[in-house]
């Protein structure tokens, strides 16, 4: 009974975020339904002007002093991982949103943390992050999906409201390292992939073993980009306040490889491994990406004041000589 409930919940949650209540048959790996076709097959939002992901051009990022640190609740609690599921186009971990919230960081209120999922390329041979920075694509990207507390934990309610602040997604880049099977949290997480090779497979064995903090190890969570965008899968609803952290999570290449060698896309006739499950970058259309104010360093201000003093002295000397 509990298993059924969790399975049903997992299917519902993943569907509402990933399928977005969509009847559209979209995909990543076939020409008739890959992301280049989404503006046609799900035109209501996928053809919008505030779509995600984007390429972040660091030279165009504007400073925003309101982008303070976040308060994360329950990220250090290993009883929050309810289940891990293969949803046919990605792997989703459903989280206990009664225990997990995110606030601060200029978000307009408290957000309940619902789930996280991943986007990847093809192991070491090709990158698969969704956002890029100055054109750089990382091997993988982790998305933590949070819904504004006014929706009582219902992602579909936030989508139905077409509320531009309905969801807050936290994006983390993942970079490969050559050491074996590190960090431990990622080794444990990826060990469950073998239990969920096919679309619809899910397991609750993941409970009480991993904290979300352990998966974000080593990342300075006070340094991030912020912009207004959308879900990166149909129906591409423009309801997301995006936070993309600057520092990548460092994960062993052998663990990154597990994703593209273990899980299969929603089967039609033949099984195809999930690879390159990312949407390509979308036009900014005038949107502005902001980030923390970079403090001016003392040496440069000292140099400035020193040079102004020298200029004043020089001018005074010239004046004196002229007189
Ligand atoms: C998507 O499909 C189109 C044809 O509809 C093809 O030209 C393109 O290369 C494909 N892109 C990807 C990333 O698969
Ligand atoms: C997408 O939007 C553009 C600009 O608004 C419009 O010209 C085009 O017809 C739309 N395409 C679809 C498939 O709705
Ligand atoms: C974050 O937590 C700190 C310490 O508990 C508290 O002082 C601060 O008001 C909180 N900020 C937000 C935005 O909740
Ligand atoms: C992914 O990489 C493997 C091994 O390098 C290769 O055999 C396979 O064809 C690649 N798949 C795609 C979709 O590029
Ligand atoms: C959330 O719960 C509150 C209190 O139970 C209720 O007033 C409100 O209508 C609910 N909102 C949604 C979107 O379900
Ligand atoms: C959704 O909201 C945007 C503004 O945020 C608006 O332009 C658009 O028409 C709305 N779409 C629907 C279907 O309500
Ligand atoms: C995984 O999904 C496949 C295909 O639907 C199914 O045959 C199999 O029984 C499932 N395995 C588990 C462990 O749920
Ligand atoms: C999970 O957390 C509990 C309580 O903090 C702790 O006793 C337990 O050892 C943790 N389990 C693992 C596998 O880390």
Short overview:
By secondary structure, the chain is of the alpha+beta class. The protein is built from eight helices and 16 strands. Residues 78, 208-209 line the site of one 2-acetamido-2-deoxy-beta-D-glucopyranose (NAG).
- Average predicted local confidence, pLDDT: 88
According to CATH, what is the class? Alpha Beta
Assembly state of the chains shown: single chain
Span between termini: 97 Å
Radius of gyration: 23 Å
Question: What's the SSE pattern?
Answer: HHHEEEEEEEEEEHEHEHEEEHEH
Question: For the report, how would you describe the main beta sheet?
Answer: 13 strands, mixed
Strand fraction: 15-25%
What is the total tally of β strands?
Answer: 16
CATH topology title: Carbonic Anhydrase II
Structural class: alpha+beta
Which tags fit this structure?
323 residues; alpha+beta; Carbonic Anhydrase II; 13-stranded mixed beta sheet; 3-stranded mixed beta sheet; 8 helices; 16 strands; 24% helix; 24% strand; disordered C terminus; binds 2-acetamido-2-deoxy-beta-D-glucopyranose
Characterise this structure.
By secondary structure, the chain is α+β, with helices and mostly antiparallel strands. The chain has one domain: Carbonic Anhydrase II. It is built from eight helices and 16 strands. The chain has helices at 2-19, 38-41, 43-46, 155-160, 184-191, 212-215, 253-262, 298-322, and strands at 55-56, 62-63, 70-73, 81-86, 91-95, 101-104, 111-120, 132-133, 136-137, 140-148, 167-177, 202-203, 224-229, 240-245, 249-252, 290-291. The strands form two sheets. Strands 2, 3, 4, 5, 6, 7, 10, 11, 12, 13, 14, 15 and 16 form a 13-stranded mixed sheet that branches. Strands 1-8-9 form a three-stranded mixed sheet, with no helix packed on it. A hairpin with a 4-residue loop joins strand 4 (81-86) and strand 5 (91-95). Helix 5 (184-191) packs parallel to helix 7. The longest helix has 25 residues, at 298-322. The protein is globular. It binds 2-acetamido-2-deoxy-beta-D-glucopyranose (8 copies).
């Amino acid at each position: 009974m509990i298993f059924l409930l969790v399975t049903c919940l997992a299917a519902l949650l993943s569907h509402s975020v990933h399928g977005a209540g969509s009847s559209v048959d979209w995909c990543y790996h076939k020409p008739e339904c890959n992301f280049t076709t989404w503006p046609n097959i799900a035109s209501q939002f996928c053809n919008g002007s505030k779509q995600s992901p984007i390429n972040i051009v660091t030279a165009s990022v504007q400073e925003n002093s309101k982008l303070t640190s976040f308060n994360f609740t329950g990220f250090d609690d290993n009883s929050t991982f309810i289940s891990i599921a293969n949803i046919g186009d990605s792997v989703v971990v459903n989280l206990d949103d009664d225990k997990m919230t995110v606030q601060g960081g200029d978000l307009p209120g408290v957000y309940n943390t619902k789930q996280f999922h991943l986007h990847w390329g093809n192991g070491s041979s090709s990158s698969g992050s969704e956002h890029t920075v100055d054109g750089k694509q990382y091997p993988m990207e982790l998305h933590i999906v949070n819904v504004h507390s006014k929706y009582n934990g219902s992602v579909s309610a936030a989508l139905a409201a077409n509320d531009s602040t309905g969801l807050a997604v936290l994006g983390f880049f993942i970079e490969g390292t050559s050491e074996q099977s590190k960090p431990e949290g990622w080794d444990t997480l990826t060990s469950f992939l073998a239990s969920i090779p096919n679309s619809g497979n899910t397991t609750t064995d993941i409970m009480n073993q991993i904290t979300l903090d352990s998966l974000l190890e080593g990342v300075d969570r006070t340094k991030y980009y912020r912009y207004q965008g959308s879900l990166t899968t149909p129906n591409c609803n423009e309801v997301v306040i995006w936070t993309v952290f600057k520092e990548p999570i460092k994960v062993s290449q052998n663990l990154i490889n597990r994703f593209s060698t273990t899980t299969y896309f929603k089967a039609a006739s033949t099984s195809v491994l999930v690879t390159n499950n990312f949407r390509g970058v979308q036009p900014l259309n005038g949107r502005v990406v902001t980030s923390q104010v970079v403090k001016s360093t003392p040496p440069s201000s000292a140099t400035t004041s020193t040079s102004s003093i020298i200029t004043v002295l020089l001018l005074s000397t010239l004046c004196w000589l002229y007189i």
